[in-house]
Queue: 2 jobs
Job 1
Amino acid sequence: MQLTTLSINNDSVVNCPRMIYNLSMTNGSNLRFHKPARATLKDVANLAGVSEISVSRVMRDAPNISASLREKVMTAANALSYTPNRLAGALKSQTSNQVAVVLPSMSNIVFSSVLDGIESVLSKHGLHAVLGVSEYDSQRELEVVRELLAWSPMGIILTGLHQDPAVAGMIGQLDIPVVQIMDIDGSPIGSAVGISQNEAASAAADYLYAKGYRNIGYVGAWREKPDRSRARRLTFEKRLAALGSPLIGSYISDDRSSASVGSSATAKLIEMHPELDCIFYANDDLALGGLFYAMRSGIDVPTELGVMGFNGIDIGKATPLLLSGVETPRYEMGQEAARLLLSSKFEGPQVKDLSFKIIDGETT
Amino acid sequence: MQLTTLSINNDSVVNCPRMIYNLSMTNGSNLRFHKPARATLKDVANLAGVSEISVSRVMRDAPNISASLREKVMTAANALSYTPNRLAGALKSQTSNQVAVVLPSMSNIVFSSVLDGIESVLSKHGLHAVLGVSEYDSQRELEVVRELLAWSPMGIILTGLHQDPAVAGMIGQLDIPVVQIMDIDGSPIGSAVGISQNEAASAAADYLYAKGYRNIGYVGAWREKPDRSRARRLTFEKRLAALGSPLIGSYISDDRSSASVGSSATAKLIEMHPELDCIFYANDDLALGGLFYAMRSGIDVPTELGVMGFNGIDIGKATPLLLSGVETPRYEMGQEAARLLLSSKFEGPQVKDLSFKIIDGETT
DNA sequence: AATCATCTTGGTAACGTTGTCATGCAATTG
DNA sequence: CAATTGCATGACAACGTTACCAAGATGATT
């Protein structure tokens, strides 16, 4: 008699341990073939003939354990394939090895790089990232933080410096280290690591001005959802004005960033301002879209149109023309955030400026 | 007389050894002003004048709660800005709202898309992803799984079908739902969602053959770290051979995938096999690199060289030539994995084939 | 009027660990 | 040699919540 009907997978007849339990459960209502229930400290202690606390100590590599005891415990633990229950441990000891990470979005390559960096450091120290995505919504962020803090993480990493004030309060109650990433132009709750978005914007303006562009435009996307991108644009505008070459115009798409959006936005902006000779884009995806649009349309880059991106993603380094832009250390930002979290117990809150770089490419 | 309670954790009038303790501490020398410690059920219950269990029920939205009780509890909870301790809750109830997610890498856009999809569904149900990265190493994957399972997640999502056998065993002990993503050509532990990598490879071979290419090469990277990419190549080769147009040659880089690697690999492969008229790439990053290389070198695409990618990332849709390739539903894969996890309690393990699509672009 | 089901609340005992003592024993010391 | 130290182990009571059972209150049913 066949139990499963829905599987497309014919060979699922083999190798399906759970089915066996299902069979035996139908046997009798209270007669339960104990599925190999997760072993506990007590089980290991009983088998090894020692006390529970000793097992606990061996598992935690506590000091002052005799070789013989360790031996006994380890064999028993292996025999039962014991895995400690972190829930209980964390509850009692009030410390866990989880780190809450709140990012505004996972679809942006920037944040996956950051997360990659975070994970690379955390995993080396036996820690885990618990992920929360705020969707650029401050209310949602608050909820996410509350939910993540309910797990008593040993620290928390937030994106940006502008959270709802309640966030700081909630973190304060737990008294765990906080690191805010991306931006350092402001006053952080605890530590902060990132670049000065303002300086980057000014530097970009200076760079384009020095390159001789005088009719500069700007393209953004997704209604400038991260506040810091708007702040960056405003600084860019201000600096251009100060240089005596004010921004000609800008176009902010409603859609989220992508190369396609970059193409269409570029088309629209050029149509609105035919005198444009250069565009600064909110990120590299948009800039690539702009570059590709120019290539398709026979607009010569960089003479007819300068293209400048932001972030310095890998693809921009392989395009026929090396993409100019601001290079931001995204992976390193993640790494440094994790490191700061780990060290902040001893060193207290810090602000770390990972500087950006101007890529003087072939598109400007 | 006022006790000046700095700690809200003081017990009520009844039976409170702790209060005495606190009292004796107040006249001790080391009187410490703690910051407001995290409120517990007991604190809320005392303030509201109800039992702890009632508070618990209100917080969990249990049925059969009178409006007046809910009212009392909620005001008390807000006053203390109470947040339930999930650690304790999960320990007692043996269920948590965390989902373990094990991915081979975070630097690959494929997996960040998948994770995005997973998160989008999980967050709608109040669940959280706890992340583990295996770095394509099966031993490391085993460790990561063990570590994540120690938190008693309510489910686990794994990448690929080829884990160390011990993984299935460990999951079996907890008896939680498993979903394996990406590949469906094999026998999953529980549910699986993805595409048939073999069919995709065959379809790509058919497509290129139909387009008239007869001297086809292959470019991969990172020593084909995900097993499935190797399997895919082998199927691709086999199919080409069956069509009577065997693979001319292939180049597998040691470095991880990137457009730059795609460019240099393309150069090398063409040098080795000047008769090549088409290259199938292991992913779109590599393919874009190939396309850009051709554009830089004046090689006409698609007549002199056909370029076919794998995945269908957004940038390939904005390039001057629409990138041909196999489009895989990465985001949907993540979503579906999460959905399967949620439903598998009721519906049991399933295998879901999210079909791929051939993008008949301008580069072939 | 007695019985029974239903709704609402509370009391108690876990869940599986670890912190804090306490204890026994060997090694050191003046 | 008594006194002191250090090491190795154990007993017990938490950590903050929820499962389980009990019980009073209310209303419906016979």
Job 2
Amino acid sequence: MLDRKLIAEKLEECARRLATRGAEGLPLEEIVRLDRRRKELQHAFDEARNQQSQLGPRIQQAMKRGEEASDLKAQSAELKAAVREHEASLREVEAQLHELLLTVPNLPHPEAPLGGEDDGVVVRTEGEPKEFDFEPKDHVALCEASGLALLGERASKLAGASFVTFLGEGARLVRALINFFLDLHTREHGYTEVSPPFVANRETMTGTGQLPKFEEELYAIPRDGLYLIPTAEVPVTNLWRNEMIPGERLPLAYCAYTPCFRREAGAAGKMTRGLKRLHQFDKVELVRFCHPEASDEQHQLLLRHAEEPLRRLGLHYRIKELATGDLGFAAARCYDIEAHSPATGEWLEVSSVSTFTDFQARRANIRFKDPKAPGSKGKARKGFVHTLNGSGLALPRVIVALLETYQRPEGGAVVPEALRPYLDGRELLGA
RNA sequence: GGAGGGUUGGCUGAGCGGUCGAAAGCACCUGAUUUGAAAUCAGGAGGCCCGCAAGGGCUCGGGGGUUCGAAUCCCUCACCCUCCGCCA
């Protein structure tokens, strides 16, 4: 959610910056108009309320003197009606305003490259492309040959297409990767592990920006008013909803393993075989809360943390900064981390590392309060925190890159060193 | 799921429907005493929102209601505790 004041004061600039992400025809003028109306109503309400509350003691005194005070009572009743009226219109205007505000995406970061999907900038490429002296198979063929994952009809029997079942060493590989990622981030990068609910209510989904605009993307449990989470970002960011974080605790860093559920409703036509696009996948997510002035630096730090698992697994990958038109609704700036699929030559997005500035914090009302300097009469500084998150990492596509990169001509795949402790020291998988 | 009890400021804990934004204690801040600290004494101070300020509004778990007036009465929701039932 954008700051109403900012929209009012810099309407042109907001519109221009939002246009760079392709957001046109937003109700910005309407928002400014409603905000002005809101202020007026608030004033009228305060005024009437003030008058009414001053009448109370006077009535009491009159009654102590044994008077009826019926004229005062009537006056008070009248004011009460006025207060109610003002309050009702105030609430209505506020609700309208809020609703409009929820539809406006975040402002892109001034340094984000301009353009659309194809204008992302590859910031750097890490590792070497894998060379084979035989014809490499793609991950689908490898899964079929090794039996690590069920991709076909037998798997879709359970919940439909685009749900996978990992079997035997494949299931074990999933667990190993989750543990590897979590251990790395908690032990070496200082993240606090969170194991949240895999469902969330409407308010929680609104806080991070999934609702109201992207209801189509979510699996819902209408009977209980719940949604399956599309990412751990949702429950973890909302941990602090409607709270004030003591400034000295910032920055906060959380990591969480959860399955992620996505309907991929907008992805029709992009259907792919195999593990590349699923309705349910496992992911370890990193979430950070920080002071506003720290978010750029925190974004770089988060990026380093998120890519570290790929480095340790010895995979070839690149970092791409998304152009403004490709940014997610709530993001101000975003790096995608893409692992290389040597069999197809594709770059697979395994992580999206975003900074949301105060956009999510406003929606979810997450603020900080710095401690007052001792002895100083100045007020403690308060404000909305900045939130950031990134996958660290999403499993299925990492598995694709892993199997393809480390495949052997005679079948199976070599386990990279870093992962062996999580697989009983095994050096080979699916052989 | 059923029955009962509870939720007050950072904490503990009072609070006849009318100067209650709320006693008291602890913690906190300022000053005095002290070489410094502790102890003691005297003061001060809840939080949030709008506002440059003056000022105003909101706030006793959330929401609604009764009343001229609600921390106090009623309804409802959430959470906590106890008992019963069920259960990995």
